[in-house]
Predict the structure.
Amino acid sequence: MATQLIERDLDAISADLLPFEDAVRTRRSIRGFLDRPLPENIIRAVLDDAQFAPSNCNTQPWNTHIVRGEKLKQLSQLLHAKNDAGEFTPDFSFDVNDFYGEYRERNNALGKAYYEAMNVMREDKEARHRAGAKNYSFFDAPQAAFLFMPSFGDNVRVAGDMGMYGQTLLLSLAARGLGGIPQTALGFFAGTIREFLGIPDDLKLLFGISFGYPDDDAPGNRVRMDRVPLETSVTFHA
Ligand SMILES: Cc1cc2nc3c(=O)[nH]c(=O)nc-3n(C[C@H](O)[C@H](O)[C@H](O)COP(=O)(O)O)c2cc1C
Protein backbone atom coordinates (compact mmCIF):
# COMPACT_ATOMS: atom_id res chain seq x y z
CA MET A 1 0.00 0.00 0.00
CA ALA A 2 2.80 2.43 0.92
CA THR A 3 4.54 1.93 -2.44
CA GLN A 4 1.36 2.78 -4.27
CA LEU A 5 1.24 6.08 -2.40
CA ILE A 6 4.77 7.15 -3.20
CA GLU A 7 4.53 6.29 -6.89
CA ARG A 8 3.28 9.75 -7.72
CA ASP A 9 2.33 11.20 -11.06
CA LEU A 10 4.91 13.93 -11.47
CA ASP A 11 2.78 15.83 -14.01
CA ALA A 12 0.11 16.22 -11.37
CA ILE A 13 2.48 17.74 -8.82
CA SER A 14 2.48 21.29 -10.02
CA ALA A 15 5.51 23.40 -9.18
CA ASP A 16 2.91 26.10 -8.61
CA LEU A 17 1.30 24.44 -5.58
CA LEU A 18 0.31 27.15 -3.13
CA PRO A 19 2.22 27.37 0.13
CA PHE A 20 0.38 25.80 3.08
CA GLU A 21 -0.84 29.03 4.63
CA ASP A 22 -2.21 30.34 1.31
CA ALA A 23 -3.97 27.05 0.58
CA VAL A 24 -5.61 27.04 4.02
CA ARG A 25 -6.68 30.68 3.85
CA THR A 26 -7.85 30.77 0.23
CA ARG A 27 -9.87 27.55 0.49
CA ARG A 28 -13.55 28.25 0.63
CA SER A 29 -16.66 26.40 -0.40
CA ILE A 30 -17.10 26.68 -4.16
CA ARG A 31 -20.72 26.89 -5.34
CA GLY A 32 -20.23 27.21 -9.10
CA PHE A 33 -17.87 25.23 -11.35
CA LEU A 34 -16.77 25.44 -14.98
CA ASP A 35 -18.04 22.80 -17.42
CA ARG A 36 -14.53 21.43 -17.82
CA PRO A 37 -13.71 17.97 -16.43
CA LEU A 38 -10.54 17.62 -14.39
CA PRO A 39 -7.86 15.41 -15.97
CA GLU A 40 -7.69 11.95 -14.42
CA ASN A 41 -4.11 12.44 -13.17
CA ILE A 42 -5.10 15.55 -11.19
CA ILE A 43 -8.08 13.76 -9.63
CA ARG A 44 -5.80 10.89 -8.63
CA ALA A 45 -3.17 13.25 -7.21
CA VAL A 46 -5.75 14.98 -5.00
CA LEU A 47 -7.18 11.64 -3.82
CA ASP A 48 -3.68 10.38 -3.16
CA ASP A 49 -3.00 13.42 -0.93
CA ALA A 50 -6.22 12.70 0.97
CA GLN A 51 -5.02 9.15 1.70
CA PHE A 52 -2.49 10.72 4.09
CA ALA A 53 -5.20 11.93 6.49
CA PRO A 54 -4.91 10.59 10.06
CA SER A 55 -7.54 8.19 11.42
CA ASN A 56 -8.53 6.66 14.75
CA CYS A 57 -6.46 3.49 15.29
CA ASN A 58 -5.25 3.76 11.65
CA THR A 59 -8.56 2.38 10.36
CA GLN A 60 -8.44 4.57 7.19
CA PRO A 61 -12.22 4.16 6.99
CA TRP A 62 -12.86 6.29 3.88
CA ASN A 63 -14.47 4.51 0.92
CA THR A 64 -14.63 7.14 -1.79
CA HIS A 65 -16.69 6.86 -4.96
CA ILE A 66 -15.92 9.30 -7.79
CA VAL A 67 -18.78 9.88 -10.19
CA ARG A 68 -18.35 11.66 -13.54
CA GLY A 69 -19.74 12.00 -17.06
CA GLU A 70 -23.12 10.54 -18.02
CA LYS A 71 -23.38 8.73 -14.68
CA LEU A 72 -23.21 12.04 -12.78
CA LYS A 73 -25.88 13.57 -15.03
CA GLN A 74 -28.20 10.61 -14.40
CA LEU A 75 -27.56 10.82 -10.66
CA SER A 76 -28.29 14.56 -10.70
CA GLN A 77 -31.69 13.96 -12.34
CA LEU A 78 -32.52 11.26 -9.82
CA LEU A 79 -31.53 13.44 -6.85
CA HIS A 80 -33.54 16.42 -8.12
CA ALA A 81 -36.60 14.16 -8.47
CA LYS A 82 -36.16 12.74 -4.96
CA ASN A 83 -35.55 16.21 -3.52
CA ASP A 84 -38.64 17.68 -5.18
CA ALA A 85 -40.69 14.73 -3.88
CA GLY A 86 -39.16 15.03 -0.39
CA GLU A 87 -38.07 11.37 -0.46
CA PHE A 88 -35.09 11.52 1.88
CA THR A 89 -33.06 8.40 2.74
CA PRO A 90 -30.28 9.66 5.06
CA ASP A 91 -27.93 7.37 6.98
CA PHE A 92 -27.42 9.98 9.70
CA SER A 93 -29.79 12.48 11.27
CA PHE A 94 -29.48 16.20 10.66
CA ASP A 95 -31.65 19.06 11.91
CA VAL A 96 -30.66 22.74 11.76
CA ASN A 97 -33.07 23.28 14.67
CA ASP A 98 -30.49 21.55 16.88
CA PHE A 99 -28.24 24.62 16.51
CA TYR A 100 -28.56 27.15 19.34
CA GLY A 101 -27.09 30.50 20.41
CA GLU A 102 -24.04 31.60 18.47
CA TYR A 103 -24.10 28.41 16.37
CA ARG A 104 -27.57 29.23 15.13
CA GLU A 105 -26.47 32.82 14.43
CA ARG A 106 -23.53 31.59 12.33
CA ASN A 107 -25.82 29.27 10.39
CA ASN A 108 -28.24 32.15 9.80
CA ALA A 109 -25.34 34.30 8.54
CA LEU A 110 -24.53 31.60 5.97
CA GLY A 111 -28.16 31.38 4.80
CA LYS A 112 -28.34 35.17 4.45
CA ALA A 113 -25.04 35.33 2.52
CA TYR A 114 -26.03 32.50 0.16
CA TYR A 115 -29.53 33.77 -0.63
CA GLU A 116 -28.23 37.31 -1.10
CA ALA A 117 -25.57 36.04 -3.49
CA MET A 118 -28.25 34.10 -5.40
CA ASN A 119 -30.55 37.15 -5.38
CA VAL A 120 -33.27 35.23 -3.53
CA MET A 121 -35.75 36.96 -1.22
CA ARG A 122 -36.11 35.35 2.20
CA GLU A 123 -39.88 34.93 1.86
CA ASP A 124 -39.69 33.42 -1.68
CA LYS A 125 -39.93 29.72 -0.77
CA GLU A 126 -39.85 28.48 -4.35
CA ALA A 127 -36.67 30.44 -5.17
CA ARG A 128 -35.05 29.22 -1.94
CA HIS A 129 -35.87 25.64 -2.87
CA ARG A 130 -34.28 26.15 -6.30
CA ALA A 131 -31.16 27.74 -4.80
CA GLY A 132 -30.82 24.86 -2.31
CA ALA A 133 -31.40 22.31 -5.07
CA LYS A 134 -28.18 23.45 -6.76
CA ASN A 135 -26.58 20.94 -4.39
CA TYR A 136 -28.15 18.25 -6.59
CA SER A 137 -26.66 19.71 -9.77
CA PHE A 138 -23.33 19.45 -7.92
CA PHE A 139 -23.10 23.23 -8.45
CA ASP A 140 -22.35 22.29 -12.10
CA ALA A 141 -19.15 20.41 -11.21
CA PRO A 142 -18.30 17.70 -13.78
CA GLN A 143 -17.18 15.35 -10.99
CA ALA A 144 -18.15 14.56 -7.42
CA ALA A 145 -16.77 12.38 -4.63
CA PHE A 146 -19.08 10.43 -2.33
CA LEU A 147 -17.54 9.72 1.06
CA PHE A 148 -18.82 6.38 2.35
CA MET A 149 -17.72 4.87 5.66
CA PRO A 150 -18.13 1.64 7.63
CA SER A 151 -20.33 1.84 10.74
CA PHE A 152 -18.47 1.46 14.07
CA GLY A 153 -20.37 2.00 17.34
CA ASP A 154 -22.06 5.41 17.45
CA ASN A 155 -19.96 6.46 14.42
CA VAL A 156 -18.68 9.66 16.02
CA ARG A 157 -15.00 8.64 15.72
CA VAL A 158 -15.38 7.47 12.12
CA ALA A 159 -17.13 10.72 11.21
CA GLY A 160 -14.15 12.59 12.68
CA ASP A 161 -11.80 10.57 10.45
CA MET A 162 -13.95 11.33 7.42
CA GLY A 163 -13.73 15.04 8.22
CA MET A 164 -9.94 14.85 8.36
CA TYR A 165 -9.94 13.10 5.00
CA GLY A 166 -12.38 15.57 3.46
CA GLN A 167 -10.37 18.61 4.55
CA THR A 168 -7.11 17.09 3.26
CA LEU A 169 -8.80 16.59 -0.10
CA LEU A 170 -10.19 20.15 -0.10
CA LEU A 171 -6.79 21.63 0.78
CA SER A 172 -5.11 19.61 -1.97
CA LEU A 173 -7.63 21.11 -4.41
CA ALA A 174 -7.08 24.62 -3.05
CA ALA A 175 -3.29 24.25 -3.27
CA ARG A 176 -3.72 23.53 -7.01
CA GLY A 177 -5.99 26.52 -7.61
CA LEU A 178 -8.99 24.17 -7.82
CA GLY A 179 -12.08 24.10 -5.63
CA GLY A 180 -14.57 21.88 -3.88
CA ILE A 181 -17.53 21.93 -1.56
CA PRO A 182 -18.41 19.40 1.13
CA GLN A 183 -22.15 18.63 0.94
CA THR A 184 -24.20 17.13 3.74
CA ALA A 185 -27.12 17.75 1.35
CA LEU A 186 -25.93 14.76 -0.68
CA GLY A 187 -26.06 12.61 2.45
CA PHE A 188 -29.83 13.24 2.68
CA PHE A 189 -30.18 10.77 -0.20
CA ALA A 190 -27.71 8.14 1.03
CA GLY A 191 -30.04 5.22 0.26
CA THR A 192 -30.77 6.47 -3.28
CA ILE A 193 -27.08 7.06 -4.04
CA ARG A 194 -26.02 3.69 -2.57
CA GLU A 195 -28.55 1.87 -4.73
CA PHE A 196 -27.66 3.89 -7.84
CA LEU A 197 -23.94 3.13 -7.46
CA GLY A 198 -24.45 -0.49 -6.34
CA ILE A 199 -22.74 0.03 -2.98
CA PRO A 200 -23.33 -2.50 -0.15
CA ASP A 201 -25.66 -1.51 2.71
CA ASP A 202 -22.90 -1.71 5.33
CA LEU A 203 -21.21 1.41 3.92
CA LYS A 204 -22.83 4.67 5.06
CA LEU A 205 -22.75 7.99 3.23
CA LEU A 206 -21.63 10.89 5.43
CA PHE A 207 -21.30 13.60 2.79
CA GLY A 208 -20.19 14.26 -0.77
CA ILE A 209 -17.72 16.73 -2.29
CA SER A 210 -18.36 18.34 -5.67
CA PHE A 211 -15.10 19.60 -7.10
CA GLY A 212 -13.38 21.02 -10.15
CA TYR A 213 -12.38 24.34 -11.71
CA PRO A 214 -14.12 27.21 -9.87
CA ASP A 215 -16.30 29.49 -11.99
CA ASP A 216 -15.32 32.92 -10.68
CA ASP A 217 -18.40 34.50 -12.28
CA ALA A 218 -20.96 32.15 -10.67
CA PRO A 219 -23.26 34.00 -8.22
CA GLY A 220 -22.79 31.25 -5.59
CA ASN A 221 -19.10 32.10 -5.46
CA ARG A 222 -19.80 35.58 -4.12
CA VAL A 223 -20.32 34.00 -0.68
CA ARG A 224 -17.53 34.70 1.79
CA MET A 225 -17.89 33.42 5.34
CA ASP A 226 -15.58 35.10 7.82
CA ARG A 227 -14.37 33.52 11.04
CA VAL A 228 -14.83 34.45 14.68
CA PRO A 229 -11.66 35.68 16.43
CA LEU A 230 -9.29 33.13 17.93
CA GLU A 231 -10.27 34.16 21.47
CA THR A 232 -13.86 33.07 20.83
CA SER A 233 -12.83 29.53 19.94
CA VAL A 234 -9.67 28.89 21.94
CA THR A 235 -8.97 28.86 25.68
CA PHE A 236 -5.38 28.63 26.87
CA HIS A 237 -4.61 26.86 30.17
CA ALA A 238 -1.29 26.82 32.01
C1 LIG B 1 -19.25 18.45 6.44
C2 LIG B 1 -19.74 19.68 5.73
C3 LIG B 1 -20.94 19.64 5.04
C4 LIG B 1 -21.39 20.76 4.32
N1 LIG B 1 -22.55 20.67 3.59
C5 LIG B 1 -22.91 21.69 2.78
C6 LIG B 1 -24.01 21.54 1.89
O1 LIG B 1 -24.70 20.51 1.86
N2 LIG B 1 -24.31 22.57 1.05
C7 LIG B 1 -23.58 23.74 1.05
O2 LIG B 1 -23.90 24.64 0.26
N3 LIG B 1 -22.52 23.91 1.89
C8 LIG B 1 -22.15 22.90 2.72
N4 LIG B 1 -21.05 23.01 3.53
C9 LIG B 1 -20.19 24.23 3.42
C10 LIG B 1 -20.34 25.17 4.62
O3 LIG B 1 -21.50 25.95 4.48
C11 LIG B 1 -19.08 26.05 4.68
O4 LIG B 1 -17.97 25.25 4.93
C12 LIG B 1 -19.17 27.15 5.76
O5 LIG B 1 -20.23 28.02 5.50
C13 LIG B 1 -17.87 27.94 5.82
O6 LIG B 1 -17.58 28.53 4.57
P1 LIG B 1 -16.27 28.20 3.73
O7 LIG B 1 -16.20 26.70 3.52
O8 LIG B 1 -16.45 28.92 2.42
O9 LIG B 1 -15.09 28.66 4.52
C14 LIG B 1 -20.62 21.94 4.32
C15 LIG B 1 -19.43 21.98 5.06
C16 LIG B 1 -19.01 20.88 5.76
C17 LIG B 1 -17.70 20.95 6.52
Notes: The first strand starts at residue 63 and ends at 68. Confidence is low (pLDDT under 50) at residues 1-6. Residues 17-95+136-225 form a domain with the NADH Oxidase fold (CATH 3.40.109.10). Residues 118 and 156 are 34 Å apart (CA to CA).
